[in-house]
Amino acid sequence: MLEAGSFGGWLLTQDGTKFGLTCAHCLPGCLVGNTVASPSTTEITARLDNIIRYTHLCPQSRRLPRSKEREAEVALLKAQYMQLPDNNGVELRDGSKIKLIGPDLGILIAKREHYTPILERHNQLLRSHTRREVCLESAIAQSRLDWAIFKGSESRVLGNLLTSDDFADKQITRLGDIEPGTSVIKIGRTTGQTEGIVNGAALQIWETGALTQEVAVISSSGGTDTGCFATIGDSGSLVVSLADPLEAVGLVVGKNDSGIPRWVAVTPLWAVIEDVERVIGKEVEFCGEV
C-alpha cells in the first residue's frame, strides 16, 4: 500500500477465488496488477523516519541523543523488511535515501470510488426485515461507494476471524443489516477495537463538490483517539454487529470530526459486494471458513 488503511475481510467468488477488501482511497497510487503490501510502505517507512534520529545511522544535522532501544528497533526493521532506494525516503548518514517495503498481501484486482443511490434501497431492505429505518433527507440521493479488492496471497488468507482482547479468533460467516440503534464494533489499524452505535439519522457530508448522506456510527467506547469510533488509517475496517452469531454489516469509508460528537461514515456491506460483483462480473459472498 502506498497509503495506510485497514483490512475489511475476505470475499469469495463462485470459483473459489478469495479477494481481500479495503477502501480505494487507501490505495491512491496503486494500479490494477500492482502489489498490495501489509504493513504498508507508508506506515513502516514513517516509523523508521521517526526513530532513526536516535541512532548512528541518522545524518548529524537531525540526530538526537542515541538510544539502544531505538538502535535495536531500526536494526529489526531493516532486517525484517525489504529496502529500496527512494528520493523521497528516509535519509541515512551516507546521504542515501531508502524506503521499506512490507510483505505482499496480494495483487490489486479492482478498485472504485463513486457516488450512487444506496440508502433508499437500504431502507427498503430494513423494511422487508421489519427493522428500524434510517432517517434520510429526501433531497440528497447520493452515497459514497469506496472499495478495492486484491487477490490474496494464499499464505496470508486466514478467513474472516475477529481477533482482539475481547474476541479470540471469532469466526464471522454471515452478513447482517446495519440498523439504527445497533451496537457495532470495528478493529482498525489506528484505533484498534472500538464500539459504537448506529445513528438513527443519516450523516450528511460535503466532499469534492458533492453532498452525500451516509450511515453514521458514533463511538460508545474509547480508543487511542479518545471518543472516536475510527480515525485516519481505519478506513477499510469491517464493521461488525454484536449479534449472536456476529454479523458483518459495513465498511468504514470516512469520518467527520468537525463537531461533537464525532461521526464515522459506514457503507452497508451489501452495497459494496453488489458493486464488486458488477465490476468483476462474478457473484461474490462474504468468505466463511477457509
Automatic annotation (TrEMBL):
SUPFAM superfamilies, sorted: Trypsin-like serine proteases (SSF50494)
Top-rank lineage group of the source organism: Eukaryota
Pfam families for this protein: Peptidase_S64
InterPro entries: Peptidase_S1_PA, Peptidase_S1_PA_chymotrypsin, Peptidase_S64_Ssy5
Protein name from the UniProt record: Trypsin-like serine protease
